[in-house]
Amino acid sequence: MSTTVRIVKTPDVLHGKPRIDGTRVGVFHLGTLVRERERSVEDAAAEFDLDASQVRAAVEYYDEHPELMETLRAQEEAREQAIQEQSRSADAT
């Protein structure tokens, strides 16, 4: 039996970022692992207790939506920078 893996965006889960339906695993995170950190689909699936077909669907979505992925990357970088700045200011006091 073949099932279609759905990628969904709902405002109450992962702040509306695309994810695999029925999970809290984001497309951006999986796409980054497979495309940029050169992890295999199988390794990523095992790490997140997913089927390889779910990871492949997420990576396909990642590849098909480069503008959205760049927006998510910029948001992630801004969040990381804000955390670093807060940490520095806490260390200074």
Summarize the structure.
The protein is mostly helical. It is 61% helix and 4% strand.
Shape assignment: elongated
The portion of residues assigned to helices is 55-70%
Q: Which sequence of strands runs across the widest sheet?
A: 1-2
Mean pLDDT: 93
End-to-end span in angstroms? 60 Å
Quick one: how many beta strands?
A: 2
* SSE-based structural type: mainly alpha
- Can you tell me the residue ranges where pLDDT is under 50 for at least 5 consecutive residues? none
The main β sheet shows up as:
2 strands, antiparallel
Alpha plus pi helix count:
4
Plain-language structure description:
By secondary structure, this protein is mainly α. The protein is 61% helix and 4% strand. The protein has 4 helices and 2 strands. Strands 1-2 form a two-stranded antiparallel ribbon. Helix 1 packs across helix 3 (52-64) and helix 2 (41-47) packs across helix 3 (52-64). The longest helix is centred in the last third of the chain and has 27 residues, at 66-92. The protein is elongated and about 55 Å long. The mean pLDDT is 93.
Record the SSE blueprint.
Blueprint (H helix, E strand, L loop, with lengths): L6 E2 L10 E2 L6 H10 L4 H7 L4 H13 L1 H27 L1
Antiparallel strand pairs: 1-2
Observed structural traits:
mainly alpha, 93 residues, two-stranded antiparallel ribbon
